[in-house]
């Protein structure tokens, strides 16, 4: 295979991809071609993994019963989270749309198989958490690939993860990494919703880069 | 800002980027323009973060003393890891080059600031680990961006993370996520070294995708 050369034009487009990626909460109700969903999962497996352990497991949540159970899980956790804020933060929190569970045509739960023997432990004796990191890199790979096909992804983390395993009848040793809503976005933006809505500001470089 | 359209040509190039990304262990000794390194860090901050918490902290490890301390840390951990294998796996492990700490012109340690108040806890009440996940997504973003500039990145996880904090004189509450070696690669490949060397095989889709 000939080694690719990435030019300035590609780099500019890649930067656009990073900027317009976004965490999407509002979806159009257009279907997503099932072959495209499988293609995204195949692309996600190009992510790096410690010791080439490939510990990512993808669960397409299709049944109405499973989806309803996940929605109930989110709604309970979201109410509890709202109760933890007060004043302006509580008002702002209540206004934010934090999940697209009702509209998204595709629900994909990504798990870590904590018991995998694949990779024979290479590279994770001193930092065993790198196994988990590998599954997270697969989520990010899928997210960027989805955006390149015009799809939006919303990562829902306001869930009780143990209950997700029960709802989906999955082994306890599978750890929920991300519950993803996938579909064509209603709106597109080059900046985070939480920045646009005044929840948080962008940190300056001086706050995040130091030298030793 | 006008919304970008990603075409089939971009998607093919993006797939090449994913395939040729690689975890690089052998570097040429060409310098990396310091402005390019800072640019990669700026691109990394386009990664998603839970509640827009931006918990990533980047430490450019430049002094000979700090680098020597990290190398000693790796060598000790790597010897201990080798001792844990036996037979063929031990022989194969001993042959693998698992770090490019001597040759890489740029050493970048990425940390999670576990104490950040940025984001006000949004989205991480039930899955607090998503704060850590955010820093990991920044590492992956930087990795892909580096490859688009022809640079290779090697993620060294065979380190005692607490000792890295001590060597770099960093607060205990900063958690080491990744120690990255960055430079121009000596070789380029479209498949993982551990696959080419027979350490592990690629898992079939049927092993990683299920439906519910």
What are the main properties of this structure?
212 residues, 8 helices, NADH Oxidase, 41% helix, alpha+beta, homodimer, 4-stranded antiparallel sheet
Task: Give a verbal description of the structure.
2 copies of one chain form a homodimer. Chain A is an alpha+beta fold and 212 residues long. Chain A has a single domain, classed as NADH Oxidase (3-Layer(aba) Sandwich). Chain A is built from 8 helices and 5 strands, in the order H-H-E-H-H-E-H-E-H-E-H-H-E. Chain A has helices at residues 8-20, 34-44, 64-83, 87-95, 130-148, 161-167, 193-196, 205-208; strands spanning 56-60, 106-113, 152-156, 174-183, 209-211. A 4-stranded antiparallel β-sheet of chain A has the order 1-2-4-3, with helices on both faces. Chain A is globular, with a radius of gyration of 19 Å. The N and C termini of chain A lie far apart (40 Å). In chain A, 45% of the residues are buried. At the A-B interface, helix 1, helix 2, strand 1, helix 3 and helix 5 of A face helix 1, helix 2, strand 1, helix 3 and helix 5 of B.
Give a brief rundown of this model.
The structure is a homodimer of 212-residue chains. With 212 residues, the first copy, chain A, is of the alpha+beta class.
For the record, what CATH class of chain A applies? Alpha Beta
CATH topology of chain A: NADH Oxidase
Radius of gyration of chain A: 19 Å
Which percent range fits the helix content of chain A? 40-55%
Q: What structural class results from the helix and strand content of chain A?
A: alpha+beta
Number of domains of chain A: 1
Largest interface by residue count?
Answer: A-B, 99 and 98 residues
Q: Order of strands across the widest beta sheet of chain A?
A: 1-2-4-3
Outline the biggest β-sheet of chain A.
4 strands, antiparallel
Assembly state here? homodimer
* String of helices and strands of chain A: HHEHHEHEHEHHE
In DSSP terms (H or I, runs of 4 or more residues), the helix count of chain A works out at: 8
Question: What would the average pLDDT of chain A be, to the nearest integer?
Answer: 94
The CATH architecture of chain A comes to 3-Layer(aba) Sandwich
Could you say which overall geometry of chain A the principal axes of the C-alpha atoms support?
Answer: globular
Beta fraction of the residues of chain A?
5-15%
């Amino acid at each position: 295979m000939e080694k690719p050369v990435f030019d300035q034009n590609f780099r500019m487009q890649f930067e656009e991809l990073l900027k317009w990626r976004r965490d999407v909460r509002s979806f159009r109700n257009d279907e997503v071609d099932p072959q495209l969903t499988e293609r995204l999962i195949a692309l996600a497996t190009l992510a790096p993994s410690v010791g080439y352990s490939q510990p990512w497991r993808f669960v397409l949540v299709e049944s109405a019963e499973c989806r309803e159970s996940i929605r109930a899980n989110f709604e309970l956790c979201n109410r509890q989270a709202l109760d933890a804020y007060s004043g302006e933060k509580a008002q702002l929190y209540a206004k934010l749309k934090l999940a697209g569970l009702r509209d998204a045509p595709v629900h994909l739960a990504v798990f870590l198989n904590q018991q995998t023997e694949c990779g024979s432990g290479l590279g994770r004796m001193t930092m065993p958490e790198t196994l988990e990191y590998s599954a997270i890199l697969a989520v990010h790979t899928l997210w960027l690939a989805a955006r390149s096909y015009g799809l939006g992804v919303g990562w829902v983390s306001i869930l009780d993860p143990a209950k997700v395993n029960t709802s989906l009848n999955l082994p306890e040793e599978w750890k929920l990494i991300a519950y993803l809503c996938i579909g064509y976005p209603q709106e597109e933006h080059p900046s985070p919703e939480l920045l646009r809505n005044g929840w948080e500001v962008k940190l300056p470089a001086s706050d995040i880069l130091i030298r030793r």
